[in-house]
Specification:
The complex is a heterodimer. By secondary structure, chain A is an alpha+beta fold. Chain A is built from 3 helices and 3 strands. Chain A starts with a helix and ends in an 8-residue tail after the last helix. Chain B is about 40% helix and about 20% strand. The chains are: A alpha+beta, B alpha+beta.
């Protein structure tokens, strides 16, 4: 999933993708309530646990940063 | 003893040579002295990251550049790039967005680093599906993805 997130950022200017080693930064686990890895947090929302396939990751990114219904015309 | 074993280094050298057409700069923000909690561990991780990245840039010296940064001395740049913890790695090249790693890219994350570099050396060519490219065209707002890993 780290590789996919970075590839998304290489592709699209809206995306910043960070890969974070929790063993070095345990305060991040406390901050986002990460209790298992891999975990994904998008725009400081609730964490998503487990591996995501490419299309699932795209869906999650669009769910949070995609067009709102009134923008879809 | 090198971190990247000789046979693997040979394969990667060839892999990069086949793809390379654009330069990539790797910025490494090292942990500043006496910054606070976990200092020793983070300073050691910064050394490990530097050693690893020096070996990586030696695989394609005509295209890969490693630049060291100190988040205190280079505070303005660190702030502009959103570097709030170290060690931090920022890849600069033909990336549309921002590609960052906090920690040392070893084990699975070494593969991530290699694939990042391959894509950037090749002018920003990702291996993503066409359906993903089409879907992401509709992005309207910034998306900050944080992937948390625990290398073993």
């Amino acid at each position: 999933m780290a590789r996919l997130a970075h590839q998304f950022a290489i592709l699209d200017a809206h995306i910043t993708a960070d890969v974070i080693d929790l063993t070095l930064f345990p305060e991040m686990a406390r901050r986002y309530q990460i209790y298992a890895t891999p975990a994904l947090v998008i725009n400081d929302r609730e964490p998503i646990f487990g591996f995501l396939r490419e299309e699932e990751l795209a869906q999650q990114v669009l769910r949070i940063a995609g067009p709102r219904p009134f923008e879809e015309e | 003893m090198p971190i990247i074993a000789a046979p693997q280094a040979d394969r990667l050298r060839t892999y990069f040579e086949e793809q390379a057409r654009d330069p990539v700069t790797i910025l490494l923000f090292i942990h500043p002295a006496q910054a606070g909690e976990n200092d020793d561990e983070l300073a050691l991780a910064s050394q490990d990251a530097q050693e690893l990245l020096e070996e990586v840039v030696a695989l394609a010296p005509a295209y890969l550049i490693l630049e060291m940064r100190d988040p205190i001395r280079d505070a303005a740049e660190a702030q502009a790039l959103g570097i709030e913890r170290t060690p931090a790695i920022v890849l600069r090249g033909k990336a549309a967005g921002q590609v960052r790693t906090f920690g040392v890219p070893l084990h699975y994350e070494f593969t991530t680093l290699i694939e990042d570099l391959r894509a950037l050396l090749a002018g920003g060519q990702t291996t993503l599906d066409d359906s993903t490219r089409e879907a992401l065209v509709s992005l309207r707002r910034p998306a900050h993805l944080q992937v948390f890993v625990a290398p073993t």
